[in-house]
């Protein structure tokens, strides 16, 4: 629901088929209802954001999504304080990136005419100069700072210079409830956090390349895959591929115009989905429902467990595999239970982002240890060293985002919600974003195998498939 919602808010996003677009529309409606049912609130001080724009961070904000097509025309009718928080997080994370560019090492900086600056000119650049150059795309990163851009579903996420003109309440366990309360589970985006433990070696090895999502989905050789499926669209490497199963090793390619390669009719797909969801929710031999076990929201604040003192979630802001609402909702749940919880949406970062601009896991651990352990040494981030030698790139490869970022003051940049979701959708490479659960998928092996679907477990997708069957059936596999 959450990822479909992000895509649907981008009025310029071109869904591959009318079926996928209609699914996104219905899933967006479900997500709005779902979030509003949580009765979420957040303290501005806890997230260090002025969500309501009144010039201070002293308020507790009721979080909700509202629909008004006239008021929010540029986001397909969606707005509200929950999305104000989402936007504020995006803005603050771009601001952090700009504020830390002095830590950039080995980058090549260029002037407005595209000429590489001299070493002397680079040494004389102010923090504001670098922020301006970054926004205008006048840079090329060093090879050592390109980490985290790839992985399945990742990618640069930028727009290639083109952009159309203490909580009182919280999610707790309620955010894991299924439609109508007759089953307990979670929307798919809430469970996909568990997938990070399954990152394969090829994902990591290729994380330094911009397009590493092309051929890193599986460690198997091409001989183990079938590329003879002529009716399946080519991926970004030009290959055609079967829909992913544990044997095939990949999800549908991003350009696929086929809603399902596994089911010839909507009725066949719906029946399989109903049967599989029923089997999942019947529980295993121990009476456990796998979806519930995978849902971190079922553990945060659990009276039988202990929450962490602090948690930091680092995600690429151009992450293509999960919604950014995933980490946002987890943060809200942690904050509501007294955990010092921060999220970092790394600008320019894709799937499996690397630490950048002076940050590191060790620094985080040392800093938080010093903050929370009595008598521990207080650790702070080392000051940036001035770059005195320009890199050796011959041309700028940065993305010019100046057309949609307001940067009259580089210490307080801003942009619109429509810009934020456009940035998000530009970076993903899913065939049916957020609801490719209708077909085979590579990650959720625990719910399937090479002969049965690996993703039929979302009660939210099933709800939409059942309630809107008449309309969706007409669009399914129509090629339109």
Description of the structure:
The protein has about 475 residues and is mostly helical. The protein has one domain. It is about 30% helix and about 5% strand. It has helices at about 1-10, 20-35, 45, 80-100, 120-125, 125-135, 190, 200-205, 265-280, 290-295, 325-335, 360-370, 415-425, 460-465, 470-475; strands at about 40-45, 60-65, 65, 80, 110, 140, 310-315, 340-345. A two-stranded antiparallel ribbon has the order 1-2. A two-stranded antiparallel ribbon has the order 3-4. A two-stranded antiparallel ribbon has the order 5-6. α11 (about 325-335) links the parallel β7 and β8 (about 340-345). The longest helix has 19 residues, at about 20-35. The protein is globular. Mean pLDDT is about 80; it is low at about 145-175 and about 180-255.
